[in-house]
Each structure stands twice: as C-alpha cells, then as structure tokens.
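Record format v2
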Amino acid sequence: MHHTVISPIREPLVEGAKTYHQITEDICSPAERAPNLLWIVGFVLSLITLGFGLACIFITIWWGIGTWNLNRTIGWGYDITNFVWWIGIGHAGTLISAILLLFRQKWRTGVNRAAEAMTIFAVMCAGLFPIIHMGRVWLAMFILPYPNTRGPLWVNFNSPLLWDVFAISTYFTVSLLFWYTGLVPDLATLRDRATGLRKKIYSFVAFGWTGSAKHWQRWESLSLVLAGLATPLVLSVHTIVSFDFATSVIPGWHTTIFPPYFVAGAIFSGFAMVLTLMIVTRKLFNLQEYITLAHVESMNKIILLTGSIVGVAYLTELFIAWYSGYVYEQFAFYNRALGPYWWAYFGMMACNVLSPQFFWSKKLRRSVVFTFWLSIFINIGMWFERFVIIVISLHRDYLPSSWSYYSPTWVEIGIYIGTFGLFFTLFLIFARVAPVIAIAEIKHILKTAGDQYTGPNATVHHHDDHGQSESVEANH
Amino acid sequence: MEQFTFTGKQKTFSIVLMVIGVLCMAYTYIAYDGGHHARFWTNFLHNSVFFTGIAFISFYLLCAHTLAYSGWHTLMKRLIESFGMFLPVGAIFFLILWFGTISEWHHLYHWAQEGIATLGHENYDRIIAGKSPLLNKSMYLILTVGLILFWSLFVMKIRSLSKAADRGDNDLATYKSTKFWMAIFMPVGAFTSAFFIWLSVMSIDAHWYSTMFAWYTSASWLVSACALLALFVIYLNGQGYLKELNQTHRHDLGKYIFAFSVFWTYVWFDQFMLIWYANVGEETIYFNTRLNTFKILFFLNLGINFLLPFFILMRNSTKWKIGSLGFVAIMVFFGHWLDFFMMIKPGIYTTMDVHGHGHGDHGHGELISEAGHHAAPMIELGWQLPGLLEIGTMLGFLGLFLFVVLTALSRAGLYTKNDPYYEESLHHHS
C-alpha cells in the first residue's frame, strides 16, 4: 500500500486552493501581458547602467589597466573582489535545483527557476572580470589549452587560476543545461497558449515538447542526472576559487579551511540575492501564493545556517592565527581587524555574522520587509569579505617599505556598477519572456503541498485507519 | 514489538567484547611500557575520541534533522538518542586521560611537560609557550570533560522531552520545546566540538595546526556514525524490531554513507592538497610523517574510506541491499577508526622513544630525532599498523558502546508515536 503521508504540521507551499489551470494562468500571465511601467523604468535604468559599465570597460581596454588603481603591492583589488562576489552569488541557483532536489525539498519549486536564471547571469558577470583583468583581452583564448600554433607556449596546469577556468566554464554549462531542461515543458505551455509570431518562437525554443509520458520520463531522468552532476559542481566552483588564494603562502590566504568556508559563504550570499530578487518579483508579478512566507522562512533558515558556518570559520581562522605561533599570520589578522582597513573587517563581521542572527526570531524570519533589507546587508557583507581577504591581506606584505593602500578609481567602480546593469537587464528580460516559477514543478507538488491538501485538510492515515485496515486484512 | 528487550544473550555478547578489550589493554599496558606505556595510552585516547565523537555527532545529526523538518528519520529517533547516551561515559574516559596528564602517567601531550612554557627552563619551547593559554592542564579538563558533560545535558534534556512526548503530554508543546533546545545545541555544539578536537587530538602534534582539522574530524565521525546506525538498523530488523524501517530508510542511510564519504574525501583532499601545494615546512611535516612512516595506512585510509564506499554504493540497489550496505558500513566504520588511529599515533611515534623502557628518570626529555629512530622492523604493529591488541581494545570499547546504547534503547519505547512526523516516517517509500 503506497500512499504518501504528509504530517499535518507541515505548512502549505501553494496557497489559495489553486487548481492546475489557475497555476498556469497565474504564472504565465506576466509573459503574456504588455510590460507595466515599473518594468519599463527598471529595464531602461538597467540598460543605462550597463552602458556606463561598457564605457568603463572600453576605457580599460583602450588605455590599459593603468586606469585602475592597482599597484605593485596590491595586484588584485576591485576586479577579483567583484569576480569572487558574483561567483558566490551564482551558487544558490544550482544548490536549490540540484542539492535540494536530491534532498526532496519541496519548497525548492517556488524559487528554483528564478534562482537558476540568476545563477547563470551572475556567473556571466563574474566571468567578465578575469577576462578584463588580463589587460589584452584579445588574447583571452590563451587560457584555453587547445592544440595550438604557439609552439611550446602552453597553459600552466599547475596554476589554480587555470583550474578556475575549467571549474567555472563547467559550472556555467551544466547550470545552463539544467535551467533550460527545466524550462522546456513550461515553454511548451506558453507555446500552446500563444498565437502568431510568439507561437513560432516558443515552438522553436520548446523543442517540440508534447508532454507525452515518454517525454516526461526522459525529462525526469535527465533532471536527476544533471542534479547528480551539478551537486559536486556547486562545491567545486567555490572550492577552486578558494584555491586561488589558499595554495599561496600569503598570510591570511593560506589556510586549509578556505574551501568549505568559501562554499558556505557562497551559498549564504546566493540565497541573500535570491531573496532580494524574489521578494521584489513576487510582489510585482503577484506571486505571493507561490512564493509564500514558508519559502521566505526556509531560505532565511539557510541564511542563518550558512551565516553561522561562515562565522565559525572566521573565528576559527582568527583563533588558529593566534594558536599557530607564526608571527606573520598573527600580524595578518591583527592588521585585518585593527589596521587601516578596519572598517571593512568590522563591516564584514557585522553584516555576515551578526546580522543573520536576527533570524533566530521566527517573527523576523517571516517578515518580508526585514528579510529584504537584511538580504542586502548580507550581500554588502559578503562583498566586504572578499575585499578583506584580497586587499587587506595584500596591502601590508612582508616588507614594510612596500606597504601600500588601495582605493579604486571611478573606472573600477564603473565596471562593478556596470555588472549590475548586465545582471538586471538579463533578469528583467528573463522575467518577461519565460515563467519565473516552474509551472510543471508547482503542479507536481500541488496534491501534497497545496493548502487545500495540507494541515487540517491533509489526507493523513491516522492510527485508527491503520487499525481498521489491519483488522480488515486480518479478517480475510 | 514496541519495546526493545536487552536480552541476556546480547548482554553476554557485549560483556565478552568488553572483557576482550580489558584483557588487551592490560596486556598492552604491561608488555609495552615504552614512552610511559605510550602504546596503551594512545589506544585509550584513540578509542575514547572515536566513540565519544560518534555519540556527539549522532546527536548533532538528530538535531539537524529535526530542525530541517525531516520526517523520514523519525522511526530511528530512539536509536539515535540512545547513541547520544554514550556521551557521559566518554566524559569518564577523558577524566582518566586528564588525570593521567596531571599525574604524569602518560606523556601523550608534549605541551604538558614541566616548564615547557617557562622561559629559561630546560624544557622551554617558544612556540608551545605561546599556545599555553589553551594548551594547559586546566583547559584540558574544561574543554574535554567539561564540554562532554555540557553536551550530555542537552542529550538528557532532549531525551526527557522525547519520553514526555511518549506519554502524550501536550505533543505540540513538547515538540516545540525539543526544537528550542536542539536549535541552541546546533551552534553551541559546532563551536565547542572544535575546541574539544583541538585539545584532545590536534595538540598531540603541538607545533602543527590546520584550520580545517575540526571539520575534518567531524566529517570522519559523521561517516562512522551513519555506518554504525545502518548496522544497528540492520541488526534490529533482523531481531524483528522496527519492521517498518524499510528499504527506503536503508536507502537513505546508504545515501548518507555515500555522501558523507565523499564529503570526508573532499575535506581530506582540501587539507592535504593545500598543505602540500604551499609547501611550508611547519605544515608539511604532518603529512610527511604520515606519507613516509605510515605509508600503508595513508593509502589504506583513502582506499577504504573513499574508493570503496564510492564505487560500491554508487548504484541504487547497493545502497539498500542489506549485504552491500552492511559490508560497506562495517568497512567504513573500521576505516574511520583507522583514520583516527593515524591522527593520533604518528605524533607520538616519531617524537618519543616508544621502545625504550623509559620510566621515571629520563622523564620528559625523551624527544628523539627522526633520524635516530628505530632500525626496528619494517612495519611496527601497534604504531604503523594496528595490531591485534589495538583491534581487541577497539572491540572492548565497542562492547561498552553496545551495552550503553542497548540499555538506553531498552529503557524507552522503540517508537516515538507522538512525534508529529511519525506517520511520514512510517510511510516512507520512494
């Protein structure tokens, strides 16, 4: 006798007693209406920001890296800070879609689509920085180890920077495949409702999906295979980013806890960004019944968990720096907290370790407004973290005569701002043309997580039912 | 059967294991007195850390599951609680270890030497002196015995709440109260366990440090705990208990052993690779010793704890089939016991004269140079590989663990019927 039993204390994940048809209507409608004013304003602003970023990139490439304030002591500044920051943000999507799928977490369905899209856009923003940082971007293909006409010139396989090229391009590819695979049935839904040119376009991108049992069976298998592949990738990307630092012998960089601590921090910032975006999206597109307070609360719990893991790691580092008895390590941490960049260290501690602790309170976990602001604080904090690790560790090295101070030029700031333009332009386009929530997956959980099927309405088989069915069987 | 009965046969079995353990330990103590009975004391510490850690991490796992609204594990709740009940016993072992430290029965900890932090003393060590606010005898008592007792309080609290729920005293309030205490234990346990492991294990190599170390040992405990849990489930099923624990529950346990083994490997690799790559002498010495003097164990560790579970449990069916799951569980349990063996033994073996009959007089000054070390046998049992005495000691501790856990299990109903997720666990199938 195989029936699913849902505990009556589980919260519903789809509210408003939805029918299958209503789900289709609710989620498809933003892609089928003309854009509203707010969207247009947002899109124009994003484009302007993107344009400004492109101008700054042009300046960098035309005049060279000298337009940045990097110097001999501080060779990595805004560029790599921003790179790591965006890569970190790009972690939540695949964690939600892959790891939460493997853990059978039903609440993932409300947010996975948008989070996956966000992942892809964030990785694109991240990838920009190392390429520009090369200076001569037209030689970017040199980082690819292909059979070449460059003679003995070959990539350095011993360098973690090269491992990063592989890690990120693999992650990007698999995330893209995962996202698109999930989109296919939903694009077909849009196709079936569209007419004219839109129908033609959606037909093309839906790959001839008919919704036959065979299609679904293959789709399910593929999703599971991709989840299996993506799970180690979620860990590997930021692990290898952390290797960029930890393989060195620079105090503050070389520490063994970096890989798992970077991964936890990445998930932390990724969820914060998902919350920032989804809190706005659910309001704009009227999706509060699909991205419920239960979803917000679950994500806030992950933020509390990963924020605390990051906190444990910070304190471990600090403590072991003292414990090591190694003066340079001790100085690096002393200088982090009390050196000229103390504000970055305290900003990091306040935003990343202290602020998530508010989420011990259930009331605050379920407050949309509070969550929105806190998610922004966290992303500021995670930016500080990378700045702390990169710039503070570099700016006072072994030789006091080469100590230096770094602050960015307007060009560097402009490129960073430009990536927001890119990110939001892409996200706004996505939100217009594709369902921001996975229609098919919401329908899949409706009968076990819809509010007409859960709580007091749950079809639980109580002990009594059991007793009866057992006694009935016994009578046979 | 709703109530587990700790039968005479099972009692006899665990007592026989304990007797084997005691005999092995007694023999080790008498026959190998080198380095202040170093072989005996390292074995004692090794098993104390291993089994106490399993008890701790099992309880931690229970807290994590409850807080994450997990339903499937509910049928095993009593069992996992019973694992936690071993913690107070662990405190006794560490009390003995602490007493051994202050009474100089053993010299497991180089930092405990007389005058090591006193400037001008012949034993003075600048690095250790810097660490002496942490590495000292009072902190050892607080951060091992004290912490274990502190954790035990949480276990007792949760246990009493869980029993109260059985009696049906206001289910939902009890459930909420349980979650409250568990939520406190999560960060508290995470912070404190690191200090416990730094002091009890990492400080053996007193000069060496690694920020990953606490997470690494926790990962090792995690796999061992899941393996032991799977073995208990298989055994109890065989005895006719908890029949509702089906293939899907076993499958989940199999997934855990698989996933945590991969996680352990990940953490192992990170720690090893970063130290190897950066090539800082103060750090590489740790792995240098293990790669050269402990070569067999070094590679055995990776084989048993990564390759074996990875390839055997890769398939769906091997995760739930009793034969394959049980085999892997036994192997990784032993494998992680070896992992802890390799965390503890080398630090003593390479710095102390473990062969010399070094009682009393030469006292603490037994540090010897690596080069001057034994021309002795190629592989020395008890140090480079566990000998029969080590296996026997482990069986003794295991017997005690079984005794404590099964006693705890028999003192309460097997089913936590009033848990709000009980029904979900009862109908857990994929």
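The CA atoms of residues 2 and 461 of chain A lie 12 Å apart.
Chain A has two domains: 1-11+458-476, 18-146+154-453.
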